[in-house]
Amino acid sequence: MSDCEAIIYGSGAWGRKAYWAYLYRYDVICYVDRNPRRWGTRLNGLEIRPPEVFTQHSEAVVILAIDNAAGIEEYIWSLGITKIERYCYDAAESLEPAMIYGTGTIAREVMRTCQKRFRVCFFVDAADRPGEFFEGRRIITPQKMQEYPDACLIVPDADAGSLKSIRETFPGDILLHDCGRGIRPALSRMEDHHPCVFVDVTMSRQKKQGEGVARVADRLWGELSKFGTDMIPVWDMHGTLVTDFAYAGREREEMQVVFQKGDTLLLLDPSVGAYCRDFQQILKEAKRSGTRILAVVHDFIPNDFPELFSETICKIFFRWHDLVLSEADGILCDSKHTVKKAREYLAEHQIRREAPLTYDTIPLGGDMSLSSMKTKIRSLLKSFMMELPVFLVVGTIEPRKGHRTVLQAWELLRRTTSSARLLFLGHDGWLNLEIKEAMELHQRKDFLWIKDADDAELAFAYQHATGLIEASVDEGYGLPLVEAASFGLPVICSDIEVFHEVMGGEAIYVPVNQPQKLANAMKKVLLEGKEKQPVLKHVPTWQDAGRKLLHVLRGTAKPITNEC
Fold first, then answer.
1. What is the pTM of this model?
2. Residues 6+ away with beta carbon under 8 Å from 100
């Protein structure tokens, strides 16, 4: 291990992975994150600290483990720190971190056979051997491995008798290794079962509710789970699907999935494309067994507007959609607009298929279950919403969503009236430095950006806003539009095809990237009052979406077409 100290900036998914990539290059001493809620907590055995720690370690290497590093790098340079490296995580190419149980001939063989798939970081030995190394890796005790739940533990079959005690010590994923069968989960195999619908929740189980498409996947799973125990949530454990009965609130032993003829595999969350390498094998196994494969597809926007996304997002998008459109039996889209885009993608990328692809649409629900929302509304949001009219914008801060246009329109509006406020609810996204710089110019009492609003606060904003603005360049559906409509909130939105499909004539349409015309629409709502604006009367519900999805899974729904 190097004597050179390193600090990892970012404690999200990339930060977790960066630790393992740099473990034996530098002496990684801590994480740094801007979020005060994370300060003092630990990740991979290291404390997460505020940015002020940089001034105490000016000679350390700073590893930027975030997707959007623009601006951050300049800030670190301003502190006099010159040794900066960017970590770019690519799940399709990176190795998964792992520990091997034991030291000796068998452990050495395990490392040799799994090093193309895993990044072996530690060996585990019951004897306390501080400072010792085996095969160039540090030896740690079983008690120490608790600090690294993100790394899987590979146990040789010869030590399988110790699994019970190992499980009591280690909370992460445990894999078994034998020379004949390779690496597999340390779970029983789910064989000779009745036909099941295996619903992939790989991404949903590791994301906070409310983040992007995981929120949609959560709601769809919530509806599916009402229809019987043959709906089984599963997730990717290092290339093998295993059950996640705990995710469904069922007390059952978790098992390794073995596909059988008559089963269905539903890929509910497209962002699982981050695990594309694993799913290439999983989908092949499903097809060999005669399992039907269905995949939810929300949009094809990175194909039409690649300049609006980071290189990493585009790479994952293309790998995943090329795989799904070649291997799945059918895709489920939010809108007919997305179905059209899917056909165009198939032709443009010349994707070969063994059989025609089927298409179905599952319009997403706009209803929000207020009875289940017990989170308190922060006082800052309450006071902001109560005094003056507020225009609401919902969505991740990224170029496609049109936040810059909204800010420009709001400035034009304020030249004629000072009575309107602007509220952004959305996570910090990508390629958004210019947008955030523009937002900083508006950091006053009439503008507010909340990055971490939950469903309760989102519903509160819908209830008390004057109007919703969705100025997107393109969308696959437009969930905030129907959510707003469920609260009787007028919608001002881009004049794009999919919004007309979702809202019909019950919205105020403005051309894309036209701040003046957007300002005129906002002024119209203020002058006439929101009660006189068009509002969508028939809002689709999540129950509707769940029932339609069930019909597709049962084979009783008529697909749009069987032609590619």
1. 0.80
2. 107, 110, 111, 120, 122, 123, 124, 153, 154, 156
